[in-house]
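Task: sequence design from structure.
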């Protein structure tokens, strides 16, 4: 049953709702959008299986309650079709009536559940594969939050050293060739997690675009332009809600009944009150998908420049070294560049960015400062690898 599927998926999704190993835009996709879609799915499912999703007007010959109930169920299972009430109806079973059939309303709860699953998948891919890199970013974020909440100085120093040692070990002992993407050159040199994170964001963008295309095809109501038509109608003063044939509340139903060895054709007019909910829900979903796609695209571009541009990586680390009081003179400039290119690398910058976004700049600067001290302490071992990449 759809209700059981919804509850099962909601339970699984809830187990990951507290994850903070990404940023706010990621959580907009895999957390808040999933929650909204599940709520909509429950609302529509309840209306379908508890209330009366369809009610058809019966001829005088259909006086028995069983006949009315049968007719409603047949028209619910069999696709109805919309035809303007002022126009003459075509013959039953013709190609024209078949092309006008509305086939989505029975499946709306499952459509919404499928959308929620599609939004959940990229986040699941990110969490599954970043653990294969040898570091669990969620553990680092949790430790940073503990650092922020504790008041004891000795505890703060202990947590900072633990986080620093954990990141240092990962950066020192990366074995990219052992990972699933190790043979691809673009995933080497401390970029595995960063590339994976950017790919995850691209998956979020692709997901929203693909969902708009699929909904446009499935709803059969020019859904891809639906929001623009709504905006244009509001500007012109014409209310577009309930005026579009995509979500009609009054439809026609043709069906046959075998009676006394003969087949009788019936054509009845039905009311689909469920479409009052469907229309409002899918209007909201259109705007939500478009806004989410725009925000995710902007977010991807910002992350791409922050991680892939050497100058952006250098400025980020330099900013936090200055906050930690570790970058005080121009003589530190070359050493800082070497620190970023040979020790922190792209993955380290990503991890520090995520710590900054999920805790505070103060915590991030203290961790960067501790890593800087470790680097300076072991500078003789690192100098032979210095290549001035930045």
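Answer:
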């Amino acid at each position: 049953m759809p209700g059981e599927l919804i509850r099962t998926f909601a339970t699984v999704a809830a187990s990951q709702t507290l994850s903070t190993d990404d940023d706010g835009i990621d959580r907009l996709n895999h957390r808040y959008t999933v929650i909204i879609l599940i709520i909509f799915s429950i609302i529509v499912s309840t209306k379908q299986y508890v209330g009366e999703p369809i009610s058809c007007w019966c001829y005088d010959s259909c006086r028995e309650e069983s006949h009315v109930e049968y007719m409603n169920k047949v028209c619910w299972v069999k696709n109805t079709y919309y035809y303007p009430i002022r126009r003459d109806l075509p013959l039953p079973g013709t190609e024209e009536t078949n092309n006008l059939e509305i086939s989505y309303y029975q499946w709306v709860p499952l459509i919404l559940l499928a959308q929620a699953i599609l939004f959940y998948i990229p986040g699941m891919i990110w969490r599954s594969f970043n653990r294969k890199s040898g570091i669990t970013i969620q553990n680092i974020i949790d430790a940073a939050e503990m650092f922020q909440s504790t008041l004891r100085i000795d505890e703060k120093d202990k947590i900072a050293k633990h986080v620093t040692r954990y990141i240092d070990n990962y950066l020192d002992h990366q074995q990219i060739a052992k990972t699933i993407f190790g043979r691809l050159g673009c995933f080497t040199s401390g970029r595995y997690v960063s590339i994976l994170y950017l790919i995850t964001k691209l998956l979020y963008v692709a997901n929203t675009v693909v969902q708009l295309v699929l909904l446009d095809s499935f709803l059969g109501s020019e859904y891809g332009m639906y929001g623009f038509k709504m905006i244009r109608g509001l500007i012109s003063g014409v209310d577009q809600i309930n005026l579009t044939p995509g979500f009609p509340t009054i439809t026609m139903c043709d069906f046959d009944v075998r009676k006394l060895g003969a087949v009788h054709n019936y054509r009845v007019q039905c009311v689909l009150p469920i479409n009052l909910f469907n229309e409002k829900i899918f209007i909201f979903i259109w705007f939500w998908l478009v806004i989410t796609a725009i925000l995710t695209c902007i977010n991807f571009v910002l992350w791409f420049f922050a991680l892939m541009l050497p100058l952006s990586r250098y400025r980020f680390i330099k900013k936090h070294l200055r906050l930690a009081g570790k970058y005080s003179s121009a003589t530190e400039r070359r050493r800082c560049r070497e620190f970023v290119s040979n020790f922190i690398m792209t993955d380290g910058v990503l991890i520090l960015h995520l710590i900054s976004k999920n805790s505070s700049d103060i915590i991030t600067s203290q961790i960067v400062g501790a890593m800087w001290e470790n680097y300076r302490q072991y500078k003789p071992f690192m100098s032979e690898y210095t290549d001035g990449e930045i």
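The longest strand covers residues 250-259.
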